[in-house]
Amino acid sequence: xxxxxxxxLHIMTATILFSCGQKSESDNDDLKIENKExxxxxxxxxxxxxxxxxxxxxxxxxxxxxxRLKGRLQTKLDLAREQENQNQEELKxxxxxxxxxxxxxxxxxxxxxxxxxxxxxNDHEKVMGYYKAQKNEIEKVKEQMLNAMKNAQDxxx
Length: 157
Known about the structure:
The protein is 85% helix and 0% strand. By secondary structure, it is mostly helical.
């Protein structure tokens, strides 16, 4: 009896989960109609928002690479510190490379904390100004990350 109840429960759960994930064609049609009827200002805002997010989405996966580089630099720094004939210049260079990676990581984290999609704003000029400023900021973060990663790679070779 318990087996039958569990089987029925599993079937019901699977049915509910499956039906929740389905989109009807009318849902898709509504989205297409909405996009066609979207005012020009709203389309411009969405396009600029998409540009901002494209830069973010391009560099966000590099965060893991930055942390791996930081770990490799830290290992190299630890080994250099253990040597009897420590090269102080090399130690400082490695410390600076690690610091650059940490600062780039924090810049991305700070940008993500500060970024606020302007969904319910009625002032088109303010929305566009905000997204332009955010695009500029995320491009600076991208540049900072890429430079820190290149410097880290150079110090590992």
